[in-house]
Specification:
Elements lengths: L2 H4 L20 H48 L6 H5 L7 H5 L5 H5 L3 H5 L6 H19 L13 H41 L5 H6 L2 H23 L2 H12 L6 H10 L1 H12 L5 H4 L5 H9 L13 H13 L1 E4 L7 H14 L4 E6 L4 H11 L4 E4 L4 H11 L1 E6 H4 L6 H4 L4 E4 L11 H12 L3 E4 L8 H11 L9 H5 L2 H7 L4 E2 L3 H4 L6 E8 L3 H12 L3 H6 L9 H15 L3 E6 L2 H11 L4 E4 L5 H13 L4 E6 H4 L10 E4 L6 H11 L8 E8 L3 H9 L2 H9 L3 H5 L8 H20 L13
Parallel strand pairs: 1-6, 1-7, 2-4, 2-5, 3-4, 5-6, 8-13, 9-11, 9-12, 10-11, 12-13
Helix pairs in contact: 2-7, 2-8, 2-10, 2-11, 8-10, 8-11, 8-12, 8-13, 12-13, 12-35, 15-16, 16-17
């Protein structure tokens, strides 16, 4: 039979038509369609099974660890607590006389053994074991596994290797599982019903009603298969299974990956262990009615490239459900990714245009984050080409990212011609003054947009007047009901009073779901003056001068401006900050920018005893403080765990130098999540260093050769600094020569000024 002609014929000689009037395949065409559908169905059913096997591999290591943690906690709980669980009905005298002093001892004893104790009958044994089981269950919800990268053992290595497979599969595997289950539920019954359509004989002997049902099922199968192909589900399923079935990573590969993205590993741990923060705390202590409405919204993550932690998904749903809100999470909790998740949800539902307004210092970060964490199109709208970029966005859609200063310069009437699906305003406290030009520009767009999301890390309960000003732009009806007494009553009272429009979580609220270390790359662009200083340094081959060129013009330095913003946000949250740089000159510029209250700088010329005195004085300050330090002087030997924010002014040639500096704050005794911000300049030596040093082969080599000597002596790890510097200088000279069209002179050897 001719395959192309078979699609239009039927088993009884009539032309079968689908619901839309198109021919229903029969005979050979039907067999081919059913074969494709069955293969698709087989692959769809395999994906959840593959992920379940990967999860089981993690649980085989994780569950004994959790059991040991639970046993340890139960061993510290007195046996008298069993009476509390049973409301005093359990008699413990016989157990206590038999030497049972803790809940753990009861929980670890079998029913038969308990019944052998004089005075303990079947009822008492069952009650005691049930009560101990309830306590164990409650304890299990509170314990969490911490992975110590500095002290790996066989068990933690096995756990990291098992998690590695799920981490590599990432968010796409989770989406593949969801899509596979939905497709299997839809396609499975229809393929079964349509099966006779592949046989001419079966269709001939079937009754008219049966044939009609088969044709209807074949039409549905064809539509489902076509839809799956259009959505690229076969490729998604194949990639997910390939990732989930990959061979176990080597210990070094798994540990390196864990160091690079520990957040994803800890997110998986929280999910699989069932541990996490108290739900009320993770939901910002919202009233039950609002929290229920937010939970009821199903977040569509098909346009996302990352997995969200529970509190982050809730924040995105809050923005969508409440429409015009402020998310004021403490710095380091991922406000940006929550906003991107909300945009991605709306894009998946058909919205095409979005607008993000932010300070110039974070515009590049927003652009990079949108592209890295979603499939959305990011369009930077700033600088000399902002009008052309804005016109491109208006025509093609995507996420326009612009600055407060550029927003009012965009073509008038633009807001009326294009209506974004959501307006996001980062660092929203910048528009607290309603008379300011930037505030008026933001308000003009906000009036025309249904969904508006303000982001700020500044705790609004400490600035009720600022909050009232911001909320007038979002929910004018709510502003009069907010008074200073709400802020004075404490953060929870304030949050409940402003719940319809405000969500804030502190690190302590969601600490159980956070990694111990959050690393953020802060990308900035050169200004005119520091850009010229950089080009001169490149032309002369001065590698070290290239590294500090971003601070050559402190008054216009984008890196310094971002550093001031980070320190300001830490001040608002009463967090201590340590600022590291390789260069004394850079630290001097930072000190001038921050003022005389900053401690230090610690440098090689400061005697060790004096260094410790400075660290002690910094640690003794109640609340916010800033310590400046040369990375060589402060990166080893000093404990700075009072600091929970680390700022690196430039990337280091030796990765171990950065690791050791961060370890001064991220160490035993640190009770807060440590945030590490690396200040980086695009199209510069910074970008070349990051690209070269981030390659896994280099990290793998550094990790595999780790030793006590390497940890204490950075020079022992990386021995090719001169060659690395030479290579970067040459690449930058070639790049800049290409931009200017001038021939490149032969590069002199890199040297310090």
């Amino acid at each position: 039979m001719n395959r192309s002609g078979a699609a239009g014929g039927s088993a009884d000689g009539t032309l079968a038509r689908g619901a839309a009037g198109s021919p229903v395949p029969t005979g050979g065409a039907a067999r081919e369609l059913l074969a494709r559908a069955e293969l698709l169905l087989e692959n769809a059913r395999a994906v959840p099974a593959d992920r379940a096997n990967a999860v089981a591999a993690v649980r085989s290591v994780l569950d004994p660890l959790l059991d040991a943690l639970v046993d340890g906690e139960l061993a510290r709980i007195p046996v008298s607590r069993l009476k509390d669980v049973t409301e005093g009905r359990l008699r413990l005298g016989a157990l206590e006389q038999a030497g049972f002093g803790t809940v753990g001892q009861v929980h670890g004893t079998g029913r038969y053994a308990l019944r052998q104790i004089p005075g303990v009958g079947a009822h008492t044994a069952d009650q005691a074991l049930a009560a101990a089981g309830q306590i164990a269950h409650a304890v299990r919800d509170t314990v969490s596994v911490r992975i110590d990268v500095d002290a790996p053992d066989d068990t933690s290595t096995a756990l990291v290797i098992a998690l590695h497979r799920l981490a590599v599969a990432g968010a796409d595997a989770r989406r593949a599982v969801d899509a596979a289950r939905r497709l299997a539920e839809l396609l499975g019954p229809r393929v079964e019903t349509a099966a006779p359509g592949g046989s001419r004989l079966r269709m001939l002997v079937a009754g008219r009603g049966s044939r009609a049902r088969v044709r209807e099922a074949l039409d549905a199968v064809r539509s489902a298969v076509a839809d799956a192909v259009e959505r690229e589900l076969p490729v998604l399923f194949a990639q997910a299974s390939a990732d989930l079935l990959r061979s176990p990573a080597s210990p070094a590969e798994a540990w390196v990956d864990f160091e690079l993205r520990s957040a994803e590993y800890y997110s998986l741990l929280a999910e699989l262990s069932g541990s996490g923060p108290d739900r009320d705390a993770a939901e910002g202590f919202l009233p039950a009615g609002i929290a229920d409405r937010v939970r009821a919204l199903r977040l569509d993550d098909t346009r996302l490239r990352v997995s969200l932690r529970g509190y982050q998904a809730f924040g995105a749903r809050f923005a969508l459900a409440q429409k015009r809100v402020i998310i004021g999470d403490e710095m380091g909790l991922g406000k940006t990714v929550q906003a991107i998740a909300a945009l991605a949800h709306l894009a998946a539902r058909g919205e095409t245009h979005f607008l993000v307004v932010c300070p110039a210092s974070v515009l590049i970060n927003w652009t990079r984050e949108i592209r890295a964490r979603s499939t959305l199109r990011a369009v930077p709208v700033h600088g000399a080409e902002r009008v052309e970029a804005f016109a491109d966005w208006r025509e093609a859609g995507g996420v326009a990212v612009t600055t407060f200063d550029a927003l009012h310069l965009l073509p008038e009437g633009a807001a009326a011609r294009v209506r974004p699906g959501m307006l996001v305003v980062d660092e929203a406290h910048f528009v607290k003054n309603p008379e300011a030009r930037r505030s008026r520009a933001v308000a003009g767009w906000a009036e025309r947009v249904e969904r508006v999301l303000f982001l700020t890390g500044t705790p609004m309960e400490n600035r009720v007047e600022e909050f009232r000003s911001l909320v007038r732009q979002l929910r004018p009806e709510l502003a009069p009901s907010v008074s200073t007494t709400h802020g004075a009553a404490g953060s929870r009272a304030f949050r409940r009073a402003v719940a319809p429009a405000y969500l804030r979580r502190n690190q302590v609220d969601v600490l159980a779901e956070l990694p111990a270390l959050v690393q953020v790359d802060e990308w900035e662009e050169f200004g005119a003056e520091d850009g010229e200083a950089y080009r001169e340094a490149v032309a002369s081959g001065r590698f070290m001068r290239m590294r500090r060129a971003a601070y050559a013009a402190p008054g216009t330095s984008a890196k310094l401006e971002r550093l001031r913003e980070l320190v300001g946000e830490a001040r608002d949250n009463e967090l201590k900050v340590v600022v590291f740089s390789y260069f004394r000159e850079v630290l001097a510029a930072v000190g001038d920018a921050l003022g005389p209250d900053a401690f230090g700088p610690l440098s090689g010329s400061v005697p060790p005893a004096r260094r410790q005195e400075l660290v002690d004085a910094f640690s003794a300050v109640e609340g916010h403080a800033v310590l400046l330090s040369q990375i060589q002087a402060g990166g080893t030997g000093l404990n700075m765990q009072a600091a929970s924010v680390v700022i690196l002014c430039e990337p280091q040639i030796k990765p171990t130098l950065e690791h050791q500096a961060v370890a001064r704050a991220h160490r035993m005794g640190q009770v807060r999540t440590v945030q590490v911000h690396r200040l980086l300049a695009t199209d510069s030596v910074d970008q070349r260093l990051v690209e070269l040093l981030a390659r896994k082969d280099r990290l793998f080599d550094a990790y595999a050769r780790r030793s006590d000597l390497a940890e204490t002596t950075p020079d022992a790890v990386d021995v090719s600094d001169a060659e690395l510097a030479r290579r970067i200088v040459e690449e930058e000279q070639q790049r800049l020569a290409g931009e200017t069209g001038r021939p490149r002179p032969g590069p002199p050897p890199p040297r310090a000024p």
